[in-house]
Amino acid sequence: MKRTVFLFSILWMVGLQAHGQTDPCESGYCPNIITVHHVADDFSPFTVKLFYNVAEVIIGSDTTCWITRNLGASAIPTSATDNSYFTRGWYWQFNHKQGYDVNGTTRTPNTPWISPIFETGPWSRENDPCTRLLGEQWYIPTFAEWTNVSSGWSTFPDDAFSSGLKLNYASYLGPGTGTYTGTISGHYWASSAHANANISISFRLVPGSFDTALFNNASGLAIRCMRPYKWVP
Questions:
Q1: How far apart are alpha carbons 222 and 233 in whole angstroms?
Q2: Is 142 helix (H, G, I), strand (E, B) or coil?
Q3: Contact present, 173 and 219 (Cβ < 8 Å)
Q4: What is the pLDDT of residue 108?
Q5: Is the pLDDT of residue 113 over 80?
Q6: How many CB atoms lie within 10 A of CB 192?
Q7: Sheet of 33-38: strands edge to edge?
Q8: Span 10-18, mean pLDDT?
Q9: CA dihedral of residues 119, 123, 124, 128 (deg, nearest 10)
Q10: For residues 207-216, average pLDDT
Q11: What is the pLDDT of residues 50-69, one digit of tens each?
């Protein structure tokens, strides 16, 4: 408990208030699993306790820690083509902190969809759901980190799943109304900025490819979180 309180103190001192309790607050190396008590607010659509398994993934010469399911997902996908409700997780618009859950045709929270969205910078720390929901050390991967982690993949979508990340076809929410599209694809935000103010960089998993895709900022995409292998608060 002391370590958890310490994390909350750090977040407060740097101007971030934690929006979910992570127990235990692991540091030093990749934990095997983290437990997060999400609280319904302007980041989480529900109050729910979720368990996130963590994989050690090599990027270049560095070992990194990645959660093995989408942020907000209550189950690890069984394959890359698993697009079941429990494995899709929550969706976010670019650099916006509110997460959305979609069960069939019902979106939670069912607030008016924000569109259009114009952003000229990268995803801010204050709005990063990984930082705010999992802890100060977690963040949305950058364009370079997504590129590096996928550089050795050749068979798609199998390699994206078997790499340890277990990426899956979570599809996305359309930019106009926030409706779940159900496409046979997975789309993950990168935190990096793009020169065009109404689109940003994502990585797209489709049959035969995992590549860069420029997505409308008002779209709702899945998020994976990563952190350094060694982290000292």
A1: 27
A2: coil
A3: yes
A4: 97
A5: yes
A6: 17
A7: 20-23, 33-38, 48-59, 62-67, 226-228
A8: 38
A9: 130
A10: 93
A11: 999 999 988 777 889 999 99
Statement: residue 3 has pLDDT above 90: no
Which tokens sit at 69?
């399911």
Tokens 């999400």 sit on residue:
38
Give the tokens for residue 66: 């990645």
Q: Say if CB 187 and CB 204 are below 8 A apart.
A: yes
Give the contacts of 1 (CB within 8 A, at least 6 positions apart). Answer: none
Q: Two tokens at 48? A: 């729910």
What ranges do the domains of the chain cover?
2-228
Q: Among residues 132, 126, 145, which one has the least CA distance to residue 39? A: 132
Beta bridge partners of 56: 65
Per-residue model confidence (pLDDT) at position 62: 84
| Weakest-pLDDT range from 6-20, 42-56, 81-95, 152-166 | 6-20
Number of neighbours of residue 208 by Cβ within 10 angstroms? 8
pLDDT of 227: 94
- At residue 34, the 3 state secondary structure works out as strand
Q: Report whether 36 contacts 50 (CB < 8 A).
A: yes
The pLDDT value recorded for residue 91 is 98
pLDDT at 16: 44
CA gap 169, 88 in Å, rounded: 8
Q: How many other β-carbons are positioned within 10 Å of the β-carbon of residue 9?
A: 12
Q: Return the DSSP state at 222.
A: B
Residue 104 CA: distances (Å) to CA of 83, 111, 184, 186: 12, 16, 16, 17
